[in-house]
Design a protein that fits this description.
By secondary structure, the chain is an alpha+beta fold. Helix content is 40%, strand content 15%. Strands 7-8-1-10-11-9 form a six-stranded mixed beta sheet. A three-stranded mixed beta sheet has the order 3-2-4, sandwiched between helices. Strand 12 and strand 13 form a beta hairpin.
């Protein structure tokens, strides 16, 4: 067996691809705007997506259109497509397109400000159509995602030319995983690691804490993965005009972290030996799989089990390194400080009082299950054994949502 490959499941090459501000890119291409144009996408009066060219002005998702225009008068705001009654459907899209195009072509900030009112926050007004003068609201319209889903299909078709479908996992409309292990293995049989390093140097973006090109023999499999990733990204841009960021590592969690490290339009390699150090440095909410309820529960668990001098302040993020300490303390205390949960096998831990917890928080909380704790321990070691699951079909066949 090649020296780059072992028997452990960590000896994989997993790629995560994430389109940069995808909805904004779709609208920019649809309106024919130059790449440097600041653009945002609006839904129900709030910004749903913001291009990277607009972010330096302080514009963020969730802002109102008016607030964003104040921060950046040159901002082009495109409407998410709306589906209404048959009488209004075409008119809705046409009017929104006309306003967005006029904004894009406006030559002065004053003109842009004036046209910012052409589409009301509550919806496109229909006074000029003669068919219905009432504004369209959530009661009589739905949001259509077909523009973005169709664009996503374009990108996925490009990926399928580089990666077999059984090695591709479409994670969402704008991201996908690919298991490149077999392809990297084949590439290493035909090319020397130092030869691969020279090619990587031509397009290198960022490597996490170690330069693979300086020491190519340290992880030649990831060098091969970086080359394949770059080829995919170039093809996506050439055929769709969309930029895409990539992350290459030995598992899904690390590759997803990597793809977000140096956006937009770059790729990042995280070497397996630095995975544990990197994950422990991250806030809990930044770790894939811990951004929702489980992450919130883990953060409360950490705050309630760390000594006061180690507990983060109320306005500070809980770090994975702090979670590591809290779980170790929990393991040590479990045998003599637990109270059996009535009717369950899940222990309940007596907690110290903390002033920064919500007033209605119970004085005891269910400890994470042994399986969950083992999974979190694995993450802290930089390990993730989850497979890339073949899946290229969207989760829903609907093209709209309420």
């Amino acid at each position: 067996m090649d020296a780059a490959w072992g028997d452990d499941s960590l000896d994989r090459v997993v790629l995560h691809l994430d389109l940069d501000a995808f909805y904004a890119q779709v609208e920019r291409r649809r309106l024919g705007l130059p790449p440097e144009t600041p653009i945002a996408v609006q839904q129900w009066g709030m910004l749903l997506a913001v291009s990277y060219t607009a972010r330096p002005a302080g514009i963020k998702r969730g802002m109102s259109r008016a607030e964003a225009i104040r921060l950046c008068p040159e901002l082009v705001v495109a409407e998410v497509e709306l589906i209404t009654s048959a009488a209004h459907a075409d008119d809705t899209a046409d009017t929104a397109d006309r306003v967005a195009t006029r904004e894009a072509n406006a030559s002065t900030s004053d003109t842009r400000r004036e046209m910012a009112h052409a589409i009301a926050v509550s919806g496109v007004q229909r006074k000029e159509t003669g068919r219905d003068s009432s504004p369209i609201t959530r009661l009589n319209k739905k949001v259509s995602l077909r523009r973005y889903r169709r664009a996503s299909v374009e990108v996925m078709r490009v990926l399928q030319r580089f990666v077999p479908e059984e090695k591709l996992e479409r994670a969402s409309v704008d991201e996908a995983y690919a298991d490149l292990t077999d392809q990297c293995r084949a590439l290493l049989k035909t090319r020397d690691a130092r030869d691969l390093a020279r090619e990587v140097q031509q397009f290198t973006g960022h490597n996490q804490q170690q330069s693979l090109t300086d020491d190519p023999d340290s992880d030649p499999a990831l060098l091969a993965g970086a080359i394949i990733c770059n080829r995919i990204r170039e093809a996506v841009f050439k055929e769709t005009a969309f930029t895409i960021s990539g992350g290459i590592s030995c598992n899904k969690v690390l590759s997803k972290i990597a793809s977000a490290r140096n956006k937009p339009n770059q790729q990042t390699v995280i070497c397996r030996e630095f995975g544990s150090e990197l994950i422990k440095s991250l806030p809990v909410r930044k770790v894939p799989g811990l951004g929702g309820k489980l992450g919130t529960r883990l953060s409360h668990f950490v705050r309630q089990h760390l000594p006061p001098e180690l507990t983060p302040k109320e306005d500070e993020d809980v770090l994975m390194s702090q979670a590591y300490v809290a779980i170790e303390l929990f393991d040590k205390a479990q045998n003599h400080e637990t109270i059996g949960a009535a009717g369950t096998d899940t222990p309940r831990i007596k907690l110290r009082t903390t002033s920064h917890l919500p007033m209605d928080t119970d004085s005891t909380v269910a400890a994470p299950s042994p399986e969950t704790l083992n999974w979190i321990r694995g993450l802290m070691a930089g390990q993730d054994h989850s497979a890339v699951v073949p899946k290229m079909r969207p989760r829903s066949l609907l093209a709209s949502k309420s």
